[in-house]
């Protein structure tokens, strides 16, 4: 099983993808012609779900461009390995902090936060990295909220995907699709969002 969180090729992919990352959420560029019924409405629902989380001192792990991070309430620290993603998130987080860091070795003391939030990161992790991430999340915060991609009918639950960026470059990324119940079971919590496109679960230690 390939590494994800510390794989140089994956890091290169997300650094190159930063400027076009939001096209996935916003159905722009190569995503404009994809048949994704109900997608735009569910993205709006997802943003409302994130905003509805109680204000808390929150660490957003693998924040990406900050598309979801900006909806978190309370003091937010956003972490990503990509410098370009960190720059994009900081622009969207004027009252918070965006910084580079290792999701499997969080640079914070025990109980530094009330909540760890992560969106579309957990589903990329192979088993060993999942275990390390969950251990780190529980170390730095009492609550964990994980958002990821729903398993849809006919979809293969685990894939090594080829992804093509706007510059034509091709990259390979490990990806899992999960039901809300499976996600909740894996993190030891409860389902809190079960959509056609997105799922979420929350756990407390």
Please provide a written account of the structure:
Helix content is 30%, strand content 27%. With 205 residues, it is α/β, with parallel strands linked by helices. It has a single domain (8-204), classed as Rossmann fold (3-Layer(aba) Sandwich). A seven-stranded mixed β-sheet has the order 3-2-1-4-5-9-8, sandwiched between helices. It has a two-stranded antiparallel ribbon with strand order 6-7. Strand 6 and strand 7 form a beta hairpin. The protein is globular. The protein starts with 7 loop residues before the first helix and ends with a strand.
Compact description:
By secondary structure, the protein is α/β, with parallel strands linked by helices.
What keyword list fits this structure?
single chain; 205 residues; alpha/beta; Rossmann fold; two-stranded antiparallel ribbon; 9 strands; Methyltransferase type 11 domain-containing protein; SAM-dependent_MTases_sf
CATH domain class name: Alpha Beta
Q: How many helices in DSSP terms?
A: 6
Strand content: 25-35%
- What is the total number of structural domains? 1
**Overall geometric form:** globular
- SS-derived structural category: alpha/beta
The biggest beta sheet, please?
7 strands, mixed
The SSE order reads HHHEEHEEHEEEHEE
Q: Pick out the low-confidence regions.
A: none
Number of strands: 9
CATH architecture classification? 3-Layer(aba) Sandwich
Mean pLDDT: 96
Strand order of the largest sheet: 3-2-1-4-5-9-8
Question: What would the CATH topology be?
Answer: Rossmann fold
Radius of gyration: 16 Å
Tell me the distance between the termini: 28 Å
Helix content range? 25-40%
CATH superfamily: Vaccinia Virus protein VP39
InterPro entries: Methyltransf_11, SAM-dependent_MTases_sf
Protein name: Methyltransferase type 11 domain-containing protein
């Amino acid at each position: 099983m390939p590494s994800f969180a510390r794989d140089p090729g994956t890091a290169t992919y997300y650094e190159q993808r930063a400027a076009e990352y939001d096209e996935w959420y916003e159905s722009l560029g190569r995503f404009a012609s994809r048949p994704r019924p109900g997608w735009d409405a569910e993205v709006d629902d997802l943003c409302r779900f994130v905003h509805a989380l109680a204000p808390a001192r929150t660490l957003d792990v693998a924040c990406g461009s900050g598309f979801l991070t900006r909806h978190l309430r309370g003091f937010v620290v956003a972490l990503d390995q990509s410098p370009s993603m960190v720059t994009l998130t900081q622009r969207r987080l004027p009252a918070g902090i965006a910084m580079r860091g290792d999701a499997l070795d969080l640079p914070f003391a025990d109980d530094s936060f009330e909540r760890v939030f992560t969106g579309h990161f957990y589903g990329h992790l192979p088993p060993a990295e999942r275990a390390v991430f969950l251990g780190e999340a529980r170390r730095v915060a009492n609550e964990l909220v994980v958002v990821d991609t729903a398993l849809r009918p006919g979809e293969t639950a685990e894939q090594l995907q080829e992804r093509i960026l706007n510059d034509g470059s091709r990259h390979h990324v490990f990806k899992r699709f999960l039901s809300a119940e499976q996600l909740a079971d894996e993190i030891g919590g409860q389902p809190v969002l079960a959509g056609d496109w997105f799922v979420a679960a929350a756990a407390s230690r």
